[in-house]
Design a protein that fits this description.
With 195 residues, the chain is α+β, with helices and mostly antiparallel strands. It contains six helices and six strands. This is MPN domain-containing protein.
Amino acid sequence: MYNRNVSPSAKKSQPKLEWRSEHTSKEKKKDSHSIPILCVDCIPLFHGTLALAPMLEVALTLIDTWCKENKYVIAGYYQANERTKDFRPNQVAEKVGARIAENFSEAAMIMVDSTRFTMGCYEPILAIYDHHENKWKCRDCNVDSFEDWCEAQKITSALLEGRSYESLIDFDNHLDDLRNDWTNPEINKSVLHLC
């Protein structure tokens, strides 16, 4: 989720990745990246292979409703492929990303490059794709692509060391038991505490 007009409390959750935005304009711009976009939160969808379109539709509908209630929009998609050396968008990623781009012209797709993963998170392990002329193009991504990579690195490393991924709730978990909160308030509290 992205957020352009960030309040101090929203900025604290910046190191988590995904997509909400207070920017609600649907206008196309010649240079859509002239104004920086800040990623402030993420919502994990599924931990297994995503093959069922109805489950994805339910997830995106619930997320869209939640975002509207919080004055955000879905502004992108992230995915980590099953194969370690495969970090290119697959058909599912491209379709979900294209659907998001229909409603948010500055949509991005973030692919996790697991080949560069370390517990210390010394460098960004993300490949960022922008949607141009109905195609996804990989952006040159480095530490400067992030507002405060050092802080994000420290927080991410601390979350990994604390094994917070074991308590992460995605939509698979939520659909198994509706009491499971896919907004992950406990992990968000941990992120804010680490800031």
